Amino acid sequence: MATLPDLVYALFFSILAVYIYIRPSLVSSSNSKGLPYPPGPKPLPILGNVLDIKPKELWVQALRWAELYGPITHLSLLSSIHLVFINTHEAALELLEQKGGVYADKPGLVMCGDMCGCKNMVAFTPYGAQSKRQRRLLHKAFAAPVIPTYHPLLLSSTRGLLTALMGQRMGGKGMFESIKRYAGSITLSVVYGYEVKAPGGGSSTFSGVMVNGNANGASMNGSTPSPTSSPSRPRPTKTVLAQKGHGREQQERLYANANGHQHGNGHGHAQGGSGAEEQEEEERDPFLKMATECVNILSQEIASGGGIWLVDVFPRLRNIPRWVEPFPFMGFKAKARVWKKKMEDWVDGPWEWTLKSMKENTHKPSFCSTLLEDLALQNGEGVDQETKDNFEFDLKWTANSMYGASIDTTLTTLTNFIINMIQNPDAQRKAQEEIDRVLEESGDSDRLPTFQDRKNLVYCEALYKECLRWSASVPLSLPHRLMEDDIYKGMFIPKGSLVFANIWAMMRDPNVYPDPDAFKPERFLDLDGSGSGSVSKEEAKRMNPKNFVFGFGRRTCPGKELVESSVWLVIVSLLTVFSLSKAKDDEGNEQELKIEYENPIFRVPEEFGCDIRPRSERAVRLVQSFEELVGV
Ligand code: HEM
Questions:
Q1: By CB distance 3.0 to 4.6 Å, which of 125, 322, 412, 590 could disulfide with 131?
Q2: 557 labeled binding residue
Q3: pLDDT surpassing 70 at residue 171
Q4: Residue 430 CA to chain centroid, in angstroms?
Q5: Does the beta carbon of 405 sit less than 6 angstroms from any atom of ligand 1?
Q6: Coil, strand, or helix at residue 72?
Q7: What pLDDT sits at residue 250?
Q8: What are the TM regions of this chain, as residue ranges (predicted)?
Q9: Measuring from atom 6 of ligand 1, which residue has the nearest CA?
Q10: Does pLDDT of 531 surpass 80?
């Protein structure tokens, strides 16, 4: 009988045989110019650096390589695929920005793009006519000048999130779901005019969407905005209450008031009972559920480990017959069939919903409906069927990319913000004192901050920047594909290389950010960009994480201006209303905060428990008055 080692050897030699057989079809990796590749960990024969690529927190390893090898690191897989990590801001500017035209392509992976049906999602579209059309559409929706038109939606959605978190005193799954619902509801509303179903029925979006500078539901169709779409803030009764120094007992009472019934201790485990979870699961909005599932499949399965599957190295494996599928390493085809179907449903679902509601004239104006109506108006003006079909195709896939890309990124930044507030009570206190003072000085302290307060919230601005830096939500950005051979400082980077901007290494560079692992908003206090402080304008620009964390060059994140407003507002609103601290056990003792990062693409922490408490009765009423206003 064959022993286990025999089987392992048999498997190894079978793979080797297949490799030798198929190898002529691979991309040539020869360096005809006689220049060295950039430095990197030593590759093994045949396998190359396969064993160096870890799916968990690859950025930690990539930072070590950056420290060892300098501005660029090179790895090879099976001596045919080149991976290049760009580790410094200077190298990123020189390559990804200045030579943007040749670094803007996407890998075109067989498994992800073709077999799982993702090739038309913006983040995977090859650089060319289609990607340019898609990015023009994205620009229409999320360019900086358009963002103020979303402020009413952001204000009301943020208040919806505060309401949801009021009921999630122990953090964990409930908190994560609430943040995802918040992020997804904004883009679903902007993009499709779809209002996300809140758990327990009703809508969790308080819409007032605007596209291309027109206020949906308001100036765009000439009608008066609904009360829920009004940017005006809810006003609680004007009883001024002591805001500070609540003891534990008083805090408990606040919570009991806030939740109408709860008066227990905060347990470290945030999740409710399994029955409640099951019920919540059933009540989750169908489109958000699809988005969560598909983004998880994309980031945790398809794109895990750089997104390279055996079939990407040996494309002929795509044609294996069904009977081969149960063999080791051959299960990819069966997986791809299931995932492709899910991706198609995810793209088609909200799109079909918009078309149907437009047909029934029940739709809310949105990015899709506005552009489709514009197209319909042009029909008499010689727009042929092919142009129309192409436009609809681009719009459908771009729309999906917007809401797909917004959920986990926003979740990552906000959950890392919460971690930092728990671990840095001083920073939390300073920010809260600043908010209290600014609201007081405005003559109306019974309100939440708005965008008009931003210029006065200097410490909060620094704290927001430090959150972007510390979180580095997409630490290795998304891979680009080099379209031509390139040379950088005498090193050869071959055409076809997969290029990763090592945002993590840039955000942890001790020369730019001393003590880089520490959360220190103070490092940004001098950076108003005026050049009046101790830091020059250039240095301020160079340090601003906004210029890093959204990627580089022609594929940089199109949602960054939205994030600049949405995430800032959530951060200052949460700080106004809640005190964030470690989870407590039954005796009220603080529990250790354990944070794990498992996701291979986003630096999103695994669910963790915490203690979310209203800071005062006034804070409770601020949130409740909004609940009453919109009837959530
Ligand atoms: C904190 C939040 C966010 C962060 C840190 C973030 C970061 C990134 C990064 C690093 C990339 C890759 C850029 C590159 O390839 O060079 C990216 C791409 C992208 N992001 Fe974001 N993002 C965020 C939020 C959003 C939001 C809210 C949206 C949509 C409204 C969005 C839409 C996209 C799209 C469509 C792409 C693909 C662009 C392309 O390949 O052309 N992102 N994002």
A1: 125
A2: yes
A3: yes
A4: 27
A5: yes
A6: strand
A7: 45
A8: 7-22
A9: 550
A10: no
Residue 533 banded pLDDT, cuts 50, 70, 90: low
Alpha-carbon gap, residue 493 to 91, rounded angstroms: 13
Kindly list the distances between the CA atom of residue 470 and the CA atoms of 466, 467, 544, 607, in Å, as whole numbers in the listed order: 6, 5, 12, 18
8-state DSSP, 46: T
401-411: pLDDT as tens digits: 988 889 999 99
Q: Could you give the CA distance from residue 43 to residue 80 in angstroms, rounded to a whole number? A: 12
Distance between CA atoms of residues 520 and 431, nearest Å: 12
Cα distances from 499 to residues 73, 107, 252, 298, 350, in angstroms, run 10, 9, 51, 19, 33
Which residue do the tokens 């899910």 mark? 342
Pairing of strands 81-86, 498-501: parallel
Encoded tokens for 371: 């552009």
Higher pLDDT, 374 or 609: 609
Residue with tokens 């940004």: 524
489: Cβ contacts below 8 Å, ≥ 6 apart:
71
Report the distance separating Cα 317 and Cα 301, nearest Å. 19
Which residue's structure tokens are 């650089």? Answer: 127
Q: Hey, how many other C-beta atoms are within 10 angstroms of the C-beta on 224?
A: 10
For residue 292, is pLDDT > 90?
no
* 477 CB within 6 A, ligand 1: yes
Nearest CA to ligand 1 atom 43: 557
Distance of CA 187 to the CA centre of its chain: 12
The tokens describing 76, both together, are: 């090879």
Q: State how far the Cα of 215 lies from the Cα of 304, in Å rounded to an integer.
A: 40
User: What DSSP string runs through 479-493?
Assistant: -EE--S-EEETTEEE
Q: With contact defined as beta carbons under 8 Å apart, do 551 and 437 qualify?
A: no
